[in-house]
Every structure is written in C-alpha cells, then in structure tokens.
C-alpha cells in the first residue's frame, strides 16, 4: 500500500460473481471473504485476491438477482466492473455503502453554486470550487470563499440532472433541493468530473428516494406548503393564506402526519390564572 493510499474499511463479508465477461452466472454462489476498501481500490480476499481501482467501479442502483442465491440476500451492493458485476454484502450494509461513497468522494474538488435558488427565487451566486466530505448522514462542503454548508441526506426533496455551462464547458449538473440552517428551502447546483458527479448523484438519489411520495393534498394544503417553501413564517400562514389559525393548526397536524413538515419549535398559547390577573392588576395600579 502506497503512502497516499489510506484504508477506510477492513471487514468480513460475502461476495457473489453475478456476471462474468458479460454473461450471467446462474449457478453463482455467495462466498465468504475479507473486504478491504481504501481511497484507491477495493480488494476482495479469499484464497485468491480481486483488486479493482475505484475509478473502474460503478455502483448499480438496481438489484442483479441472477439466481435464487442472489435473490435470497435482502441487502447487497452491486458493483459494475467492465463486463463483470460483483455483489457484495457485509453485516453493516449501510455503513459499507457510506464508506464506499467516502472512498470516492472525500476530499474531491467539484464546482458548486450555492445557493442557486432560495425559496423559489433565483440567486446571483457564482460557480466556485468546493471540497467534499461524506458522513453517514450528511454531505459537507467547504467552498473556496470560506463558506461552509451541509446537505442532510434525509433532507433532500427534489433532485434533477441537467446540462449547463460550467467553467467554460458543458457539464452535467446536479440540482438538489434541501434546507439551510434556518429551515428555508434552497437549491444547490453541483458539477465537476463525470465520475465524481455520477457517484455523488447516486448518493443524493438514495436520500431523495426516501422522501418521494405521491400525496393527495387539498388546494389549501398545497397553498400552505408553497407558502412555507417560499419562506413565509409558520406563524404568518393564517394571514398569508387567508384561513383562521385553528384551520392552520389542523393542516399542520395533517402535514406532520404525512411527513411533509416537521416540528421545529412549539409555541405555547397561554392565559392568565387568577394569580396572574392579581399580579397584573397590582402592577397596573402602581402606574
């Protein structure tokens, strides 16, 4: 292992050679192995060793159930390596996937436009370089102007890929919607080397998939959601949408149940007790 190569994970697991030379292996079986992941390559060690540079690996986003053995495993990662596909599983499935994304993306430099859109309003942000760091729950970025921000992996709303001019070239751009530290909806644009963007897209897509839902909201509920999206204070929704406070509270409860909104802080509605009225009366009498 070279001085620049860093070990990220060394664990026991299983692998199945699902496709070899472009041909499905219908008699393939799971084989116990040692799995070593570094920032440069993946190694699968049995009696022999398979060593593959990370840049030759694509993570597939669908299952490759070539036979019952493959289908019997609830969770595995399918790796496309040229004309071969290897299935890998470990005891900590999510941990391995995060580490695999880390191996490729940590410290990668990409182009970032943040924020590109805030509350539905396009901003005049410029493209600049940013450095990535992946954790179990977040994608963290530090931009060249010193700005830092986080995309929570479970806080991704919509995500699209488009072609835009970036640094004088037509490049693939990930457009990802999330919230900032104040809870305002923002969109961030990400671009760079095709390999990095392809892997980053898959990482973010996993978060977006968890949050996709086909919801049947009423027109009023949709107006409330759009008002919140555009930055209207939750306490000003009644006046903004034109409905009474009680109805707003009912809609909030319904949207919380549907996992469309979440409670950040509860405001207490209070009234004076007899003791409180006495204190207030005495204070007014002293004025």
Structural class: alpha+beta
How many helical elements? 7
Just name the CATH architecture of the largest domain: Roll
Helix content: 25-40%
Question: What does this protein structure show overall?
Answer:
The mean pLDDT is 88. With 287 residues, this protein is of the alpha+beta class. Helix 2 (93-105) runs antiparallel to helix 3 (194-211). Helix content is 27%, strand content 36%. The chain folds into three domains: 7-92, PH-domain like (Roll), CATH 2.30.29; 106-211, Pleckstrin-homology domain (PH domain)/Phosphotyrosine-binding domain (PTB) (PH-domain like, Roll); 214-287, Orthogonal Bundle (Arc Repressor Mutant, subunit A), CATH 1.10.10.
Question: How do the strands and helices of this protein lay out in sequence?
Answer:
Blueprint: E1 7-20, E2 23-24, E3 31-38, E4 41-45, E5 49-53, E6 58-59, H1 68-71, E7 77-81, E8 84-90, H2 93-105, E9 109-118, E10 121-122, E11 128-134, E12 138-143, E13 148-152, E14 159-166, E15 169-179, E16 185-191, H3 194-211, H4 219-229, H5 237-242, H6 245-257, H7 274-285
Antiparallel strand pairs: 1-2, 1-3, 1-8, 3-4, 4-5, 6-7, 7-8, 9-10, 9-11, 9-16, 11-12, 12-13, 14-15, 15-16
Keywords:
PH-domain like, WH_DNA-bd_sf, CheF1/F2, eight-stranded antiparallel sheet, Arc Repressor Mutant, subunit A, 16 strands, alpha+beta, Taxis protein CheF, WH-like_DNA-bd_sf, chemotaxis, 3 domains, 287 residues
Short description:
The chain has 287 residues and is of the alpha+beta class. It is built from seven helices and 16 strands.
């Amino acid at each position: 292992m070279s001085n620049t190569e860093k070990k990220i994970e060394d664990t026991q697991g299983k692998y199945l050679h699902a496709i070899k030379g472009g041909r499905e292996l219908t008699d393939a079986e799971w084989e116990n192995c040692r799995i070593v992941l570094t920032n440069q390559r993946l190694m699968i060690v049995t009696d022999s060793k398979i060593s593959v540079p990370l840049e030759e690996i694509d993570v597939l986003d669908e299952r490759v159930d070539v036979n019952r053995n493959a289908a019997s495993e609830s969770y595995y990662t399918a790796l496309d390596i040229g004309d071969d596909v290897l299935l890998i599983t470990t005891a900590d499935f999510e941990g391995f996937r995060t580490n695999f994304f880390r191996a490729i993306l940590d410290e990668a430099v990409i182009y970032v436009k943040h924020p590109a859109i805030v509350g539905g309003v396009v901003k005049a942000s410029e493209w600049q370089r940013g450095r990535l760091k992946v954790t179990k729950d977040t994608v963290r970025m530090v931009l060249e102007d010193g700005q830092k921000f986080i995309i929570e992996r479970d806080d991704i709303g919509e995500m699209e890929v488009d072609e835009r001019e970036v640094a004088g070239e037509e490049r693939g751009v990930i457009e990802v919607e999330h919230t900032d530290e104040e809870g305002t909806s923002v969109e961030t644009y990400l671009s760079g080397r095709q390999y990095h963007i392809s892997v980053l897209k898959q990482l973010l897509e996993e978060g977006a998939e968890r949050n996709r839902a086909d919801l049947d909201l009423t027109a009023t509920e949709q107006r409330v959601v759009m008002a919140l999206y555009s930055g209207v204070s939750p306490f000003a929704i009644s006046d903004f949408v034109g409905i009474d406070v009680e109805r707003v509270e009912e809609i909030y409860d319904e949207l919380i149940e549907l996992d469309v909104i979440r409670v950040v802080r509860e405001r207490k509605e209070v009234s004076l007790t007899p003791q409180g009225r006495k204190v207030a009366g005495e204070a007014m009498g002293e004025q």
